[in-house]
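Quick question: who can interpret this fold?

. . .
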Amino acid sequence: MMRVGESFCPGILHAVQAKDGLLTRIRVPGGMITPSQLTAVAELSTSFANGNIEITSRSNLQLRAIQKKDLKSLVQGLDSAGFLPSPEHDRVRNVVTSPFAGLGFGEILDTRPFVRELDRRLIANQGMAGLQPKFSFAIDGGGDWFARDSDDLTLRVKRVMNVDDTHLFHFIIGNTFSGFCVRVDEALDCILEAAKICLKISKELEMPARGRKIASVPQAMGRLLEELSSFLVACPSPGSSTLVAHMPVGVYATQRFDFANLVPLVPLGRLTAEQLQCVAAIAKECDGDIRLAPWRGIVLGSVPERSISQITARLEAVGVSFDGKDGYLGIAACAGSAGCDASLADVRRDASLLACRLAGRNTKHGWTVNISGCEKQCAMRNGATAELIASSSGYDLRIDGRFIASNCSLEFVMDKVAACQAEVPFEVFRDDDL
C-alpha cells in the first residue's frame, strides 16, 4: 500500500497506521529539548511503544509500534512533558535551525531566541493551524548549514552589515532567493506574514501552500513579494550556501573555555530508550545543552572538557559510538518492510549488514548512502553518494547520481558500495570544518 498526502503525516494527536502499529511524531522546534523531556520520551517509549526512538530530518522525534489501547496514555504523557502546547498546532511546529546554534562554529547570530519566539507566535496565531503538516520554517544564523530538504520559508543571516550597523536576513522561498533581505527586528513579522499569504494564495490559485510550489509560479511568487513589500530590502544574491552533507562525529570545541560539544553516532537515526536516558542523565549532571540534529543525530553541547573521557565511556557502554568506525557513518535507511507495507525489502537489516561490511574503516568525509524500501524514497536526503532502492527482485543502484544496475543482489550492491567508499578521498575532519 503506497501512502501519500498530508493525512499520513503524523503528529502527537494524529497517529498514523504503519505495518508495525501506530506511528506518532513529536515536534521539537529547533531540535532544542531538555533532559527531562528526553527522559519522558524514553520512558513513554518503553511503556507504550517499541522502546526505540527515531530522530527525523527536521530534528523531530518519532515513536513506533504503538497499540491503539495505549495511545491515550501516550498522548497524556507527551502533553505532560510539554510537547503539546497547542493541540491545534500539533503538526505545524516545524522550525529548523543549526544544531550548533549558540555553540559557535562561525555563527553570526544565535538563532535560539528567534526559534523560541517564532514557535510562541506560531501557536498564538489560530490561522497558522491551517498550514500543511510538512510546511517548515528555517532560521540560519551563519556558519555551516547541514544539508536537508528545502524548507518553505528561510531566513539566512547576511554576512555583512548594512549602513545602520544592523544585520539582515536573506529571505528565501523554497529553494529560491527572493532577491530581498529583511531587517532582523522585522524578520519574524515577515516570515509569519509570508506563511499567512502562502495560505491565502493556495486557496485563491488552488495550489499547495508550499514554498517551492509558490516560487515556481510567477503569479504566486509576485503576489507574495508584493504583499510583503513593506518588510523587504533589496540586496544582492547570497550566493551558494555552505551546505554540509556529512554526519559529524566526535568531540568539538565550543566558544566557552574548557567546554566541548560531543557528537555521538546515532545508527540509522534510532536510539534505544536506555541510550536516550543515558544522554539525558549526562546532560542533566553536566548542565549540558541537548540538540536533535537534521542528520538524524544528536549533539550534547557545552559539557566540561574534564568530563569527556567519563562521558564517552558511559555512552559507549550502552552502545553509543564516538569514532564512527562501526560502519554506520553516512548510512541512512527508511523503516523498511518491518514497519512499512510499501517497502520491498528489510532495508534496516540490510543497512546493518552493510555497516558490518564497512566497520573498522577510516571515516570518509562527505560520503553518504541512502537505502530505500521503494521508489518513493521517503525521508531520504538529496544527493547521496550511493542510492540503493529496493525492487521486486533486489536493489537498483545509483552512485553519484549515475545509474549502475537494477535488480541486484545485496552482495553485489555491498561490493559496489564498499569499492565506492574506498575510492572517496579521505579528509581529516577538523573542529573548524563545522
Q: What stands out?
A: Residues 6-91+245-317 form a domain with the Sulfite Reductase Hemoprotein; domain 2 fold (CATH 3.90.480.10). The longest helix spans residues 187-205.
